[in-house]
Design goal:
0% strand, 243 residues, Tetracycline Repressor, domain 2, elongated, mainly alpha, Arc Repressor Mutant, subunit A, 2 domains, 11 helices
Length: 243
């Protein structure tokens, strides 16, 4: 067990201590779920004193919020990693696949990010509020990237004119989040390929409902699947450190 003044012995800055705590909490979350996230266990894993959780962050809820914010920053980076191509519908499906990939990498973190973790007060990290103030800046960044891609899709002329990109973004996120949540819960186990059999046709239906043709939508989604597969192969061959 680390000594109470471990962090001062090695002269860590406040930012470094917070980074250690968030790293440790994220790892514990992935390995054991939210019920194991306690100030003492996180501090021990981070090799700092338990008091550091309170002194540098304010408490366990604030630590969890920092973990959630990192999750959304990672999601934003995953969205940014989907290149803007000449097929904006394919780009949107690429973003959907990136969201699914992040969720599968750490399901407990995904649950926490979207308020699905159920241990004690962890279900909701802040009081419910209306409007933009209800969301963190990290969430807002990821969401704005999605809205921007939806704006490109609206501007492509493939759907009805006058559609609101933010409304489309909300519809798309709802669709993808519902799929990801059900898949993580094991509810698609009877489907050999849930992406092909559930997510892809759902996305086609959404795009067609916005005015796209079924043929164009299917072609775009197939392009996105191919691009995502190539990127996954490259990532497997050249893994990068987690940010």
């Amino acid at each position: 067990m680390p000594s109470p003044d471990k962090e001062t012995t090695v002269r860590l800055t406040s930012e470094q201590i917070i980074e250690r705590l968030v790293d440790a909490a994220t790892t514990l979350l992935a390995e054991a779920g939210p019920s194991e996230i306690k100030a003492r266990s996180v501090a021990e894993a981070a090799q700092v004193s338990t008091m550091s959780v309170y002194y540098h962050l304010g408490g366990l809820p604030e630590l969890l919020q920092a973990v959630v914010d990192r999750g959304f920053r990672n999601l934003a980076r995953a969205f940014e990693a989907v290149p803007a191509s000449d097929d904006p519908a394919a780009d949107l499906f690429g973003i959907a696949l990136a969201c699914r990939q992040l969720a599968q990498a750490n399901p407990h973190l995904y649950d926490l990010m979207f308020g699905l973790a159920t241990r004690r007060g962890y279900r909701q990290l802040r009081p419910a509020r209306s409007g933009a103030a209800a969301q963190s800046e990290a969430f807002g960044t990821a969401y704005s990237l999605l809205v921007g891609r939806c704006a490109r899709f609206v501007g492509s002329g493939r759907i009805r004119g006058g559609e609101n990109p933010e409304v489309i973004a909300t519809q798309l996120w709802s669709c993808v989040h519902g799929f990801v949540t059900l898949e993580l819960g094991g509810h698609f186990a009877h489907f050999p390929d849930p992406v092909d059999q559930v997510l892809q046709p759902t996305m086609v239906n959404l795009l067609v409902g916005l005015g796209d043709t079924a043929e164009s939508a299917r072609s775009s989604l197939l392009n996105a699947l191919r691009a995502h597969s190539r990127e996954s192969d490259r990532s497997a061959a050249y893994p990068q450190a987690r940010g």
